[in-house]
Amino acid sequence: MKTAHSTHSSGTIHRRGFIGAAGATAALAAGGPAAAAAGAPYRQPPLPYSENALEPVITSRTLSFHYGKHHRGYVNNVNELVKGTDWAGMPLDQLVVQTADNPEYAAVFNNAAQAWNHAFYWNSMRPGGGGEPPAELKKMMQDVFGGVKACCKKLADAAGSQFGSGWAWLAVDGHGTLNVLKTANADTPLARGMTPLLTIDVWEHAYYLDYQNRRGAYVAAVLDKLINWDFAMRNLERA
């Protein structure tokens, strides 16, 4: 698994102890804590909006394939891979962390991480998103990047410069530093002890039906019209 590449990291913000993205996004983990405790299979969380709610930025056709085929496939795959193992019923975020950076468990990691990343991605957007972040997050962006526009440019640069498939993230590390980073394929900040705040999917299946090879146009539209700063703030508050 490739290492996540940080495009900017400075200006440490000291907060109460970081407990990782498990606390920030427990409700998003497929299956949820109760299902994990009971040993139930992971379940694909429902979309937080209708399939046409993100139009015209992301069409219902794209969302239908992306959520209904790709995301669902990862959830089904990880259920098959952990069936009958000690991992069965483990919270999804913990499974991601425990199987990271171990080639022997690459198939489990890739499918578990993709299931988790996608659930996180859906919540990183909302109809009528974009605009100004909440005050505390906005101040952090100002302190670290020089402002909201500069932070968005870092996110766009990370998304645009990711070679091949991957993700662009806004996250905080264990020292409380706000970071923009990109990860390849299924890789995720969870695997390196960071707390993700939001993400943009730059796998081609996320945008190709609507934008073809114009990844930059897709990313710009997500940042301008869909990005869910309130979700990022909730994750920051739980960190």
From TrEMBL:
Q: What is its EC number?
A: 1.15.1.1
Q: Give the main EC class.
A: oxidoreductase
Q: Which domain of life is it from?
A: Bacteria
Q: Pfam families from the xrefs? A: Sod_Fe_C, Sod_Fe_N
InterPro entries attached to this UniProt entry: Mn/Fe_SOD, Mn/Fe_SOD_BS, Mn/Fe_SOD_C, Mn/Fe_SOD_N, Mn/Fe_SOD_N_sf, SOD_C_sf, TAT_signal
Show where the Manganese/iron superoxide dismutase C-terminal domain sits: 135-234
Q: Which UniProt keywords apply?
A: Iron, Metal-binding, Oxidoreductase
Gene3D superfamilies named among the record's database cross-references: Fe,Mn superoxide dismutase (SOD) domain, Iron/manganese superoxide dismutase, C-terminal domain
- State where Mn(2+) binds: H66, H118, D201, H205
The yes or no answer to whether the keyword Transmembrane helix is present is no
What is the recorded name of this protein?
Superoxide dismutase
Q: Name its species.
A: Kiritimatiella glycovorans
